[in-house]
Design goal:
199 residues; two-stranded parallel ribbon; mainly alpha; 59% helix; 7 helices; 2% strand
Length: 199
């Protein structure tokens, strides 16, 4: 399961894979507002190289991706880990850079797992993008203050997001669903987002 550093994930039985984008964000936030190259830039340079490798394997098979990662990414990952350990005690732990280094070291064993399987991603940005509308809108959804309201909202959001993933125009999809349900309320299977034929 691709995750950020939220501690509750550790309570699951899933094998966790950490997200490089979260590490990168910590180092980006630690960059001073100067043109001088600092330690945060060194870390971000390593991260940029790893993303460059990922771009180069886009569209390749899982086996090909694994092979390229072992050959090209693993040495960079190993060097980055050594750099983090080397600087862990040299940077004030409560500074932004110190927090970035500590976060990265805490996540690193989980992060390295992406090297072992070409099906795994280097980050969980896809999931982050999918939940962004909920994160942005959650203050507006405080009206879901009952179990029934929250359940209804969850069903609607699931339907809408699944329609988007299936490349449907949501308004057209909902219109088709409502029309078909009015005509034949017991026939739901053809209305599932991956089955629906828009009128």
């Amino acid at each position: 399961m691709h995750v950020d550093g939220y501690a509750a994930y550790e309570q699951t039985d899933a094998t966790l894979v950490a997200c490089l984008a979260h590490m990168r964000r910590k180092f980006f936030d630690a960059k001073p507002n100067t043109k001088k190259v600092g330690k945060a830039d060194v870390a971000m340079s390593s991260i940029a190289k790893l993303y460059g490798i990922e771009q180069s394997v886009n569209g390749k098979t899982a086996n090909e991706i694994h092979e390229v990662r072992q050959k090209k990414a693993k040495p960079i990952v190993d060097k980055f880990k050594r750099w983090l350990k080397e600087h862990e005690d040299k940077v004030p732990p409560k500074s932004a850079l110190g927090k970035a280094i500590k976060y990265s070291l805490n996540q690193f064993d989980k992060f390295e797992r992406y090297l072992e399987d070409g099906r795994l991603k280097i980050d969980n940005n896809r999931a982050e993008r999918a939940i962004k509308p909920f994160v942005i809108g959650r203050k507006a959804w405080l009206f879901s203050n009952t179990c029934n309201g929250a359940r209804a909202s969850a069903i609607l959001y699931s339907i809408i997001e699944t329609a988007k993933v299936n490349n449907l125009i949501v308004t057209d999809y909902l219109r088709t669903c409502l029309q078909c349900l009015a005509e034949n309320p017991s026939d739901i299977d053809p209305l599932l987002p991956w089955n629906v034929k828009l009128r």
